[in-house]
């Protein structure tokens, strides 16, 4: 990546552009990542905290974005969902190694409407929809054969690939962002950081020391 391109008025690399709304910049960066990353440019690290203030982190896939929220889907009985129910706040981090860019997002969490969850669930491959029924996510199992048997059971129960209902314990979460930080790798660890913070109904921009 050429670090010698012209800088914007904040003194940052021009890839930071000059957007008032961070969601506009996010979409530009994501579009770039989709062209350069080999696998899953929409993969993100999701951090949650349980009722005992113990943090945990795992990778999930971004499956939707509005002008306010970042959306992902999961089992509502999973560890991540249990922690989000206890503490409906979370952090996300996208890291694109090829681009040497990163985006961090903080915000509050809420479930997506059933209509939205149904629409996304019905767009998934048949095997993924069956898997949502078969997996008792985050609970111990004696053997992987137990999972295979459950998959076969639900395939027989829902043989029609066009008629697999969404499990009541499977849905989506939407993170409503209040802080979004864009990061660009720099030589000698002199990175470039642009942070957006929601103040009322508007976004305030500031640059941070690396």
Structure in words:
Helix 4 (126-134) packs across helix 5. The longest helix is centred in the N-terminal third of the chain and has 15 residues, at 22-36. Strands 1, 2, 3, 4, 5, 6, 7, 8 and 9 form a nine-stranded antiparallel β-sheet that branches. The two termini are 19 Å apart. The protein is of the alpha+beta class and 210 residues long. The protein has helices at residues 22-36, 79-86, 114-123, 126-134, 144-157, and strands at 43-49, 55-61, 64-65, 69-75, 89-96, 101-111, 170-184, 192-199, 202-208. The radius of gyration is 20 Å and the shape is elongated. The chain has a domain at 14-121 and 174-208: Pnp Oxidase, Chain A (Roll), CATH 2.30.110.10.
Q: Which structural traits does this protein have?
A:
210 residues; alpha+beta; Pnp Oxidase, Chain A; nine-stranded antiparallel sheet; 5 helices; 9 strands
Show the helix and strand layout.
Elements lengths: L21 H15 L6 E7 L5 E7 L2 E2 L3 E7 L3 H8 L2 E8 L4 E11 L2 H10 L2 H9 L9 H14 L12 E15 L7 E8 L2 E7 L2
Antiparallel strand pairs: 1-2, 1-5, 3-4, 4-7, 5-6, 6-7, 7-8, 8-9
Helix pairs in contact: 4-5
Assigned CATH architecture of the domain at 14-121 and 174-208: Roll
**Through-space gap between termini:** 19 Å
Judged by helices, strands and strand pairing, the structural class is: alpha+beta
User: Helix content range of the residues, please?
Assistant: 25-40%
Order of helices and strands: HEEEEHEEHHHEEE
- Rg over C-alpha atoms, rounded to the nearest angstrom: 20 Å
Number of helices: 5
Shape: elongated
Question: Largest sheet at a glance?
Answer: 9 strands, antiparallel
CATH class of the domain at 14-121 and 174-208: Mainly Beta
What name is given to the CATH topology of the domain at 14-121 and 174-208?
Pnp Oxidase, Chain A
- What is the assigned CATH homologous superfamily of the domain at 14-121 and 174-208? Electron Transport, Fmn-binding Protein, Chain A
DSSP, total strands: 9
Strand content: 25-35%
**Uncertain residue ranges:** none
What's the average pLDDT?
95
